[in-house]
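note to self: the first set is below, dont mix up w the second
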Amino acid sequence: MFSCNTSTSGHSTFLLTGFPGLEASHHWVSIPINLICVVSILGNSIILFLINTDPALNEPMYSFLSMLAASDLGLCASTFPTMVRLFWLGVRELPFDLCAAQMFFIHAFTYVESGVLLAMAFDRFVAIRDPLHYASILTHSAMAKVGAAILVRAVLLNLPGPILLRRLLFPQVSVLSHCYCLHCDLVGLACSDTQVNSLVGLVSILLSLGFDSSLIMLSYALILQTVLSIASPGERLKALNTCVSHLCIVLIFYLPKLGLSVLHRVEKHSSPALAVLMANLHFLVPPFMNPIVYCAKSKQIRQGLLKRFQQKTVDVS
């Protein structure tokens, strides 16, 4: 830990942290992480391409899925560059402005993804509760407004973070806990009073992840209530099956965050490498798994992918 005797505001340098104790093997350790990043970018790009070019996927559910893929790509673009700098180039230094910018985009895209998951839960609720009015409720105009609201909320909730950080004093050189910049990490390194920053960060989380997760649980409670009122067991199973993909990605999104939170409250210093691994998976797993889940569970996406592949084969022949 560096001394606060030579602290400055807005001119500090932050050192990224890889896997403690495995510095000599960073190249090998980082290969799976980099492969996950590449697959995530390819998978989400393919999902976006299919939804935007296939008329059969012109439905509200797939429009929300395209928003989810776009937020996943944004999250990959926010975290991947510093991972490459650290693991492959051995560059640990990151100036304050770049660190604050990365922090803003990581948290903003995380909040966007959380908001999209809530919108998708509402989509499933309307499809099951009121299928006759589904198309009239979730119009293109309504979805555009929902998408804009999610984006504006993410920006407004994260904008105070970098601004308030500039008033804090940091050591000339500070060591981060991860290979990217997070708000809680930066606030913990400050030499001055951070009560306002901590309060703003807490309110931001409650109004995004806390609010969204509560409404998602409420949506599924109402969905379950509606499904149980259906007389036919076959229809009940069919209705629940339409929610499986969304429920999987909700768990994939929130469970790593819960695991990381528990790890930070347990004695994380006893296994720092595990803490770093969990922190990386916390951001890498959702963008990696979301395209796989939807390709595995959505017949329309599989058909669209197969059609594109067959078309490409015919063109080559």
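second set (the one i keep forgetting abt)
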Amino acid sequence: MLNFPRGTIKPKAGFNAGDDVAALRNAIEGLGTKEKILIEILTRRSSAQRQLLCEAYKEATGRTLVEDLRGDTSGDLEELLVALATPPAAFDCHQVMKAMKGAGTNDGILIEIFASRSNQQIRALTDAYLKETQKKLTLDLRGEISGDFAEALLLLAEGKRDESAAVDAEKAKKDAKTLYDAGEKKWGTDESKFVDVLCRRSVPQLRQTLLEYKNVSGKTLQQSVEGEMSGALEELLVAIVKCVKSVPAYFAERLHASMKGGGTDESTLNRIMVSRSEIDLLDIRAEFKKLYKCSLLSAIKSDLSGLHGDCVEAICGGDD
């Protein structure tokens, strides 16, 4: 697991899996579950430490920690604690499986994951999917989605985006012109050109292309995509453009939307808080404050309550 310095959850110094297992067993097996202890331990250990803890727990009890968390907690808190006890690639994999379950797909989950994850994260996700289902994720996705949206998502799901750091200014100009000709300039839009450029080029290359596109068309690429397309494809390509500009700002927007208006989308909130907790949650907090003039922590406090709120606050950390 890569260690990212911009997360809010850091490895615990002097970590001892045996001590943690004893404390967790006491919290779970005693009379009435002591959720505060579960929260304290699971939000104050790195993901790698939590996996060592899960192994030690199974050795000591013959049960998995996830099984016991499911048996002893409920609702949004259960979902969040189970997410913390799950390795990141397996967690992404379960979210994708959830998005494909039942009639139709939850495109929002698929878009968020495939637009924001690195090649390495996507490959880890697809490996986890193969291990759990004995099936290839791209084949299963193909059976669930269709059209240009499917083409774009399947390109991303291959985890083969160009990773070169070098920027080719001429190629950026050429791509910007191709996109302008395929959209704003013609009657009807050639979506495949947008899919090809946005799902294959490296992030630094796309940043340059966004600048060149503004020069060619006078509009931002996001404005053109929103004006020329609709539905899931529009949502996916806009998410890619936002992530090219700033992944933390993209997640700050998603978090704000999950807490806005009537009722909270706890599932999206949980997914983002857990999946970014060791990567860039400090940067997401900074972007949230910049965009909405209040701290992420204060937004969480005014939106959530009870033990689930306590757990999300613990992941979020400081009030900056």
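remember for set 2: The two ends are 27 Å apart (CA to CA).
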